[in-house]
Amino acid sequence: MLHAVIMAGGSGVRLWPESRKLRPKQLITLFGERSFLQQTSDRMRLVCDGSIHVVAGSHLRKKIEEQLPDAAFIEEPCARNTSACIALAAIMCLEKDPDAIMAVLPADHLISPQNLFAETMKYAAQWIDRHPEKLLTLGIPPRGPVETFGYIERAALLNSPDDPCVFEVKRFREKPSRQTAEEFISTGAFFWNAGIFVWKARTILDYLREYAPDIFAPVERIQQALGREDFSDTLRSEFARIPNISIDYAVLEPASKQNHVAVLGAAFEWDDVGSWRALEQFFPHDDSGNCIASSVEATGANGAMEPIFVESRDCLVRSSDTKKRVVCCATEGLGVVVADDVILVFDKNCEESLRKITKKLQELNCEELL
């Protein structure tokens, strides 16, 4: 059976102040009425005949279970990156289904249309059923030379041209410079790395044993403790011993060098909506490039007051304030996000600096804003 593993432990710091420690990006609603997490679960319910698992820290358990009461919550005792998250989920899937296929995906991405996503995931699961020794990742055909995504370089075609294209993975490439990204795009041999994977639960554990024994050893001890009275204590102590490393570094990169990894070209639209600037593309702009990054329902007579732009260009405003109006005058490239308890003003061209906000707030003991 196909089991969904939704990784929901991220912090979404670049979408502060809407994304907070106890209500991170995956739990907030930026579009419509469903959170990113709920939308991810909705998509997977179209294709899964097994369980929906959500992996996150205990501090998010209550809110996740409120949003997804039917999902199986897997608790991470501490933050240990995607290798630990996936390994823990794999042993939980195997406990329920010895032949489990895992669909692993982040909780906070935007994907459409739903039917194309469902068709892609169904084909991916079928392909893995025929090639259980492989690790399959989904590649997004790039829309341009984006510097904030990782890339996957493809090699030989592995199936019939009449089927959805599955390629051998030649190598994974980290987030490139603008010039390097343009070179990638010009070759036609690269996909964006969406961080969505499909594989047999037993296979990913086998490759962890081979390529990352320092990860596999504590995970194996956790697996051996399943059903025992000391399971919680074992999970807590052994999970903390797992190195903090991504599944890409731990397994996918070394496995790709031995032709164990394939990439399926995705037919759907995808974006990780990782920043306020990324959000702009989903909302209308005026003739000067200014964007009101709020839904129609959130502005107007019954919602937040619509901002005013005077001699301003390329600005972004998102506000939930029903009493105060944002006015931008003689500004360019400015971002303004108004929350109930704080206002963020930033240069849209320096978004990476937003990661420093949480550190600064901690230094100032402003825990209530984190």
Topology summary:
Blueprint: E1 2-7, H1 36-45, E2 52-57, H2 61-67, E3 72-76, H3 81-96, E4 101-106, E5 110-112, H4 114-130, E6 135-140, E7 151-157, E8 166-173, H5 178-187, E9 190-200, H6 201-211, H7 213-224, H8 231-239, H9 247-256, E10 261-265, E11 269-271, H10 276-279, E12 291-292, E13 308-310, E14 316-319, E15 327-329, E16 334-338, E17 343-347, H11 355-363
Helix pairs in contact: 3-6, 3-7, 3-9, 6-7, 6-9, 7-8
What would you say this structure looks like, in words?
The protein is an alpha/beta fold and 370 residues long. Helices cover 31% and strands 24% of the residues. The strands form four sheets. The chain has a five-stranded mixed beta barrel with strand order 6-9-7-8-10, surrounded by four helices. A four-stranded mixed β-sheet has the order 12-14-16-17, with no helix packed on it. The longest helix has 17 residues, at 114-130. The chain is globular. The two termini are 40 Å apart. The model has no long low-confidence stretch (mean pLDDT 92).
Sequence of secondary-structure elements: EHEHEHEEHEEEHEHHHHEEHEEEEEEH
Q: In percent, how much strand structure appears in the residues?
A: 15-25%
Question: What characteristic shape results from the CA principal axes?
Answer: globular
Ends distance:
40 Å
From the helix content, strand content and strand pairing, which structural class follows?
A: alpha/beta
Count of helical segments?
A: 11
Task: Give, in spatial order, the strands making up the sheet with the most strands.
Answer: 6-9-7-8-10
The percent range for helix content is 25-40%
Main sheet overview: 5 strands, mixed, barrel
Unreliable parts: none
Rg calc: 22 Å
**Averaged pLDDT:** 92
Q: Please report the total strand number as a whole number.
A: 17
